[in-house]
Amino acid sequence: MAEIVEAQGKEKGGKKKFKKAPVHVDMTPMVDLMCILITFFMLTTAFTKPKIMEIVLPEKIKKDEKVEAPKIAKSRTLNIILGPDGRVYWYPGSADDPKNPPPLQETTFSADGIRQVLLERNKALFKKVYQFNDDVLRGKIEIPRDSVQSAIRQLKKDDDTGPIVLIKAYSKAKYGNFVDIIDEMAICDIARYTFVDISWIEEDMVKNALGASGSVTSTGSN
Amino acid sequence: MPKLKLPAKSPRIDMTPMVDLFSVMLIFFVLTATVRPQEAAPVDVPFSISAKPIPDANVMTILVANDNRVFFNVDNGPDTSLKFRPKILNEMGRRYGIDFTPEELRKFEKLNSSFGVPIQDMRNYLKGKTMQERSVFETGIPIDSLDNQLATWILCTRAINPGVQTCIKGDANTDFPIVRKVLDILQDKNVNRFNLITSLEAQAVKLDEEKTQ
To answer: Each residue of A10-23: pLDDT tens digit?
Structure first.
């Protein structure tokens, strides 16, 4: 409680003299209150803002419109199929012939899984972007900070050796895998990738691969 | 020798420095506080290397929970006096033949969390006073082709606030087809640029750099 410590003044010559005494105010309740407030604000504050990852999908072709699908070189195409249980399959080229489908390769989302496959094919561009970033950091290239991103974008645009990645999702894939694979695209600096619908040939290929591995826990096919 | 007797006085600790410190901390927290809105459904967002923060305003968020319910959220715009939320709800009401009272619109403006309510239940939802009362109606926004309310929400939002950006917040464990459907609906409405909300995972890049050196 607040109290006033009074030093009794000695009477001198009839005059009462009070020594100047410090006024003590008990701060404990104030500290208590502040503790509560700080705890409240600490718990309700969201320090880290959620991050966002941008993706741009190609414009949808309306059914009544007659637009030719863009032609892409088979040799540069890399198909990635997201399978169930975090599996991921890939094959180069395209699957047109249902009787003789190209062999599917299974890999994982780990650093030496799909990332090695992508990096191997995208070595030239990846090195270019890496070198560019390195030069900017070391100050070899004088460039304003806000134009670094657009310079990298230009590098990606000019690239014509890297793979064209087509991402497809099998019906039992999870959303997390989709984010993972787009993340891999960003990590490996893939210039050209898009998300397309899976064809029935590829669905069969995945089914065969799942059957072959023999460790499918989820039965029932689509 | 007589014992030395100290005056029996309760020890006092000077709290003033503590109060000073606490004041500083309190002011810091008050100023940096952005209240974390309660999410309607628990969502574990996937990780990515993207370090771009979510914009402060002009965002519509489509939330896909792992039980395949779809939620929607939109903010009031960069300035609360713009009142985008009530305007959007009013527009929705007009399209579905529901007349929302000004009071209901105001309530909707204040609720800043995502909602997963069919528009027919919106009135009852807004009547609920607590989160528990409201959550009864959260059955998810219908997205099937017969009753595609999500598409109407997107349409209304874009009509009221043309500068809106689309964010998709999905649980890592959500089935992909449902997300694909949401993407399809967005693309039908000519939204081709999305932001996927993720949390940062910085380690992935480091690993990569070591490998290439």
So the answer is: 444 555 666 777 77
